[in-house]
Design brief:
This protein has eight helices and ten strands. The chain is of the alpha+beta class. The protein has one domain. A hairpin with a 5-residue loop joins strand 9 and strand 10. The longest helix is centred in the N-terminal third of the chain and has 16 residues.
């Protein structure tokens, strides 16, 4: 996510790689379309205006700018499908200032190639939760959106966080795991854990699948994805994801978490259990 703003406080993330069940460009298009339609629906005055920017390549190529994402969806989809280096869309209320004064975005959707040679694509979306983070129906809707966006993907990783705009996970930060290594090993070791954690099929199998994970009692909901992998929801609401829930999730996922004792990051307040997963 490009930056943290005062209006957005809930983030959805997912990581795609070459093991995805569909072409990565098609999954990128589907991510943008699902987020646009479900998080920022037409008729919502707060997010009625929108923009998009796509950078085709890190080393050259076009920068494509699109105004009014909904009205020009076909144009945006065409430049997303080749899986560009960078893409972002922002949603905001229409400006009533004839001078065209900037209005802060209330939501963002993004996709960025990362890893060596663009080996992975990081997907993101940010919305304003505010008091809704304590609303069970609203929170359940976030999980539905993430599942709809990833059902055909078997993602290498996914998560939903509150007030966390970092592209790396809290666990990666606390363990000081190099980003490229973490991406490369994402189907061998789980990158982290959050209120909602997306586990790829390979790691879900090692954990015993949905039945075994439900039996741990650590999760409010366990949701299989059609193309493989699971979404694990820790508590009914984002606001309810307290240290007790976090500890239960950590213990349930410890067999596939990277080893090491988490440390402190002076530039970040990471929500992790300060135990070595390999010793659980």
């Amino acid at each position: 996510m490009d930056d943290e703003t005062s209006t957005m406080d809930v983030t959805l993330w997912a990581t795609l790689d070459d093991h995805a069940a569909a072409p990565r460009g098609d999954l990128l298009v589907h991510w943008f379309r699902t987020a646009t339609e479900r998080l920022f629906p037409a008729g919502d005055e707060e997010s009625a205006a929108s923009w998009a920017l796509v950078t085709e390549s890190m080393t050259g190529g076009r920068n494509v700018r699109v105004r009014d994402v909904r009205a020009n969806w076909g144009q945006l989809a065409d430049v997303l499908r080749p899986s560009p280096f960078y893409a972002a869309a922002g949603f905001h209320a229409p400006s009533r200032d004839d001078g065209g004064a900037w209005v802060d975005d209330v939501g963002r959707v993004g996709g960025t190639q990362t890893g060596r040679g663009g080996s992975h694509t990081e997907l993101s979306a940010a919305v304003r939760g505010a008091e809704h983070v304590a609303d069970a129906a609203w929170c359940a809707g976030l999980v539905v959106v993430l599942a709809a966006a990833l059902d055909e993907a078997n993602p290498a990783f996914a998560r939903i966080d509150h007030r966390n705009f970092h592209e790396t996970t809290d666990l990666e930060s606390a363990l000081k795991r190099p980003r490229r290594r973490s991406l490369r090993e994402s189907r061998t070791l789980l990158r982290g854990y959050s209120w909602v954690t997306g586990v790829p099929a390979e790691l879900a199998d090692r954990l015993g699948g949905p039945t075994a994970l439900e039996a741990t009692g650590a999760f409010h909901a366990v949701r299989p994805l059609r193309a493989g992998g699971l979404l694990l929801q820790a508590s009914q609401t984002l606001a309810g994801y307290d240290d007790r829930h976090m500890a239960a999730v950590f213990r349930a996922l410890a067999p596939v978490l990277p080893p090491g004792l988490p440390g402190e990051d002076p530039g970040r307040s990471a929500r992790v259990v300060h135990e070595d997963a390999s010793r659980v």
